[in-house]
Amino acid sequence: MLRGGAGILSGMKRRGLALHWQILIALALAVIAGRLSGTSGATLGVRWYAVYDFLGTLFLNGLKMLIVPLIASSIIVGVSGIGGEGGLGRLGLRTLVYYIVTSLLAVLTGLGLVNLVRPGIIGGQPARNVIGLTGSVQAVAAHVHGRGMADVVGIFLRMVPTNVVKAASDNRAMLAAIFFSLLFGSFMATIAEPGRSTLQAFWQGVLDVMMRITDLVMRFAPIGVFGLVAKVMASTGFGAFVPLASFFAVVLAGLTIHMFVTLPAILWAVARIKHPWRQHRAMAPALLMAFSTSSSSATLPVTMECTEKRAGVSPRVTSFVLPLGATVNMDGTALYECVAAMFLAQAYGLHMSFGTQFSVVLMALLTSIGVAGVPSASLVAIAIILSAVGLPLEAIGLILVVDRLLDMARTAVNVFSDSCGAVTVARLEGEQGILEEDPRTRELS
Questions:
Q1: Is 444 a domain residue?
Q2: Is 69 a member of any domain?
Q3: In total, how many domains does the chain have?
Q4: DSSP secondary structure of 247-301
């Protein structure tokens, strides 16, 4: 069964099947293989359960390997590029403030819902056994407690590393590495030539290499997910899907609130748009494109055309706000990352103090910016957050069972937030006539 599944996965790669379809097929094969083999099935003396464990662990190790160089290079390149292009003037400042505030609101929405619904608790008990989490609760709790996140002041103290090399060598100290990367990228843009160009070329080269390595690791995602999910199915069966359904519902509810309540409220209160619901109509073509492609970057041309022709925002604003937003503004992704981390903490039966939850919020906010442009960005970002707060990565593959539909939904939210940012910034810049006509009367070329 395992050899047959591996052969099918290899055949999918040769035929160039899209990664998300490969993962979905791998999930289906994993369910079948796990249920057929159980924990005791073996071939030639080799237990299939051990093979599943090997494949899943190897894939998770590959993800961990990416964390430090990928997040550092992506943040340094992104921040230095904004500063180097003179993008931190009034227009840039308003844009960045909008992106930070809306992402923070999205994360807080997810945090509130996950604490209210508690999808990681089934029948009053942590769902760790139901979804097949094997890590020791005591060891995990010791890791989380050992990070000393009991108070917010301590978190800010740990943001400033005493030894940046040591911080970079520890995935659980990523908040310090991210802070240093933000500082480094900001000041790198201010130094004189040729030092600035040399450093920019170096870090761009590092980022390009890491993107290629990330792409390599993600090519093996179907096999890694197969191992992770087959292991769970072998030990727990279909009971694992009960908490996953709750997790799915919480994320979808959070995305819905952010898209249909929070962002329209910002348009009404900050941008002074009398009819904020017209923005949904104006962006309908872009939202459909985002939902079907799961890519903010691929949707960007349609997003810009809708924002200019149907919402009435000037090209001056859209040409700056929207490309930047497609790279760094990931409201839906940040919400998803936060809910995923809290869901797994609940499944382990861990009490997350206010300080620890605040740390999750910060990490979700920063990683949604730092890894937005990489393949399967949410997967890498969740790995970063879990490592930072001391949680094992073993359940990441299981979350991918519901990831595809959530990826489509959160990409639509990301794109809609970008467009609301363009409208808000344009109104703050003094532009008039935005969304004063019914967008349905304006057709795209």
A1: no
A2: yes
A3: 1
A4: HHHHHHHHHHHIIIIIHHHHHHHTS--S-TTHHHHHTHHHHHHHHHH--HHHHHH
Which domain covers residue 309, as residue numbers?
2-438
Q: In 230-257, which positions are buried (b, 16+ CB within 10 angstroms) versus exposed (e)?
A: bbbbbbbeeebbebbebbbebbbbbbeb
Q: Is residue 443 part of a domain?
A: no
d(CA 152, CA 327): 29
Where would I find the beta strands (DSSP E) of 54-168?
Answer: 121-122, 125-126
- Angstrom distance (rounded) from CA 186 to CA 59: 34
| Contacts for 120 with CB less than 8 Å, ≥ 6 apart | 126, 127, 243, 247, 342, 343, 344, 345, 346, 347, 348
> What's the pTM value of the predicted model, to 2 decimals?
0.71
pLDDT in tens, 259-302: 999 999 999 999 999 889 999 999 988 898 888 667 777 788 78
Is the distance from CB of 383 to CB of 400 less than 8 angstroms? no
Phi, psi of 396 (to 5 degrees): -60, -45
CATH number at residue 107: 1.10.3860
Q: Which is it for strands 46-47 and 42-43: parallel, antiparallel or unpaired?
A: antiparallel
**CB contact at 8 A, 262 and 150:** no
